[in-house]
Sequence to fold (388 residues):
Amino acid sequence: MRRFLSGNRVTLLRSGTEFFPALVAAIEQAEREIHLETYIFADDETGRRVAAALSRAARRGVAVRVLIDGFGSRKYIGGLGRDMEAAGVQVLFYRPELGGIRLKRHRLRRLHRKIALVDSRVAFVGGINIIDDLDTPGQIPPRHDYAVQVEGPLVVRIGHTLRHVWTLVSWSQLRRHGYADRQERRRPRRAGNMRARFLIRDNIRHRRDIEEAYLEAIAGAKEEIVIASAYFLPGIHFRHAMVEAVARGARVVLILQGRVEYALLHYASRALYGQLLDGGVEIYEYHKGFLHAKVAVIDGHWATVGSSNIDPFSLLLAREANVVVDDEGFATELRDSLENARLCCCRQVFPQDWRHQPLYRRFLAWAAYGLARFFMGVAGYSRKYDQT
Fold:
């Protein structure tokens, strides 16, 4: 697992209202190179705003590369991809979906990361897709999500993984979108005093880096663990780690999705509530809008922001990216934001309420959990899930 690097400045960005202005401003200032990866690139007001900024950068001679997941954006991208390519943006799709829906292992391995890099100077990492916060069903309030803006030595590591995946996809599709013409890169200087590390999840060397970082931090927790996860279906080791932390005297708080976005995961995660509540874990469901966060704060100094949920898709299948920060100021800022969300927008799930819920709700939860396990078994990942 990659070690912490010193000398960084990591800025917390809350939802699209803070993320997109910062991203577009960085794109507008680009002089040499922009690289963006995203799971969803929507043809909505926000997507068109980002696409226009990328196109303007390409027209003024900046090398602009955009890598979009072929499943996540299969019904979103619309004509934006063609418009960007016409302006000189290099656009590639990660594992493009060409056929009907079939449950095959390789089709489940998606590019779920959300990363942007500008001039090897500033990077953005988090859970925010290129989609408007208000692009939700009905009149639901904006998504609640996080990203970080990174400056300093950690940017070098972020750039390395972006270029590596771009090269793999480019060669696999017999495309010649290389880096031969843009080798000038400045090594970022110290930008602050924060210790941080960049973690990825892939299917080769870094299969468990993000999961292991979580488990290591949870195992060492003495006071408090706060985790916000949009999709939450941890394996047995992760569940035991949280319950053991409570037994040691630490407070464990989970902020989870309260609204139904994806029914199978929504109800399957509730099958685990009984074990966690009986173990002393506090569970709060976010109901104001859709929770899309994938963040955590532990003992007031360790914090992570990224794209990885705590579910089989993120921990076993998808390419993910998280930034881990060891800094009291950053951790306090993120914890305060989560606490505000907990107090204003969440409902606590109490053990007695859960035990006395209607029988059909319990059946629905366990049926969904069983179905999720069945699909993991068909895809060949059931045993790996048991080990998480």
